[in-house]
Amino acid sequence: QVQLVESGGGLVQAGESLRLSCTASGRTYSITTLGWFRQAPGKEREFVAAISWNFGSAYYPDSLAGRATISRDNARNTAFLQMVSLKPEDTAVYFCAAHRGPNANYIPHTRNEYEYWGQGTQVTVSS
């Protein structure tokens, strides 16, 4: 079993930056991909970023236009999400999630492909 805990959320002003952290514990050796999702009230959960745990390759959706950067520190079992030029529409609960699979080069980007989830951290961007 894998446990994930997010931290770093809070209230920021538009145009500022924020870094979120996700620390994994338990059977971390089984993780092949660590991803970030977000969900705003009344909207579906949206893919933000993902990274291969072993190889470090990253994947981002076109919708974020380069404003999100994912990284990881395997020695600390921690992944990070750096968001810059924050906008009010970035307001959401941000979740980290872990994927396990036979293909370490495959980076999933849908909710159902991740089996372990953190409780989420709230990010609120004011005008």
Walk me through the structure:
There is one protein chain. With 127 residues, the protein is mostly beta strands. It contains no helices and eleven strands. The strands form two sheets. Strands 2, 4, 5, 6, 9, 10 and 11 form a seven-stranded mixed sheet that branches. A four-stranded antiparallel sheet has the order 1-3-8-7, with no helix packed on it. A hairpin with a 5-residue loop joins strand 5 and strand 6. The relative contact order is 0.32. The mean pLDDT is 96.
Shape: globular
Q: Give the helix level as a range of percent.
A: under 10%
The chain-level structural class is mainly beta
The gyration radius over C-alpha positions equals 14 Å
SSE map:
Layout lengths: L1 E6 L2 E4 L4 E9 L6 E7 L6 E7 L5 E2 L8 E6 L4 E6 L8 E8 L16 E2 L3 E6 L1
Parallel strand pairs: 2-11
Antiparallel strand pairs: 1-3, 3-8, 4-5, 4-9, 5-6, 7-8, 9-10, 9-11
Key descriptive features of the protein:
127 residues; mainly beta; seven-stranded mixed β-sheet; four-stranded antiparallel β-sheet
Put the structure in a nutshell.
The protein is 0% helix and 50% strand. The chain is built from no helices and eleven strands.
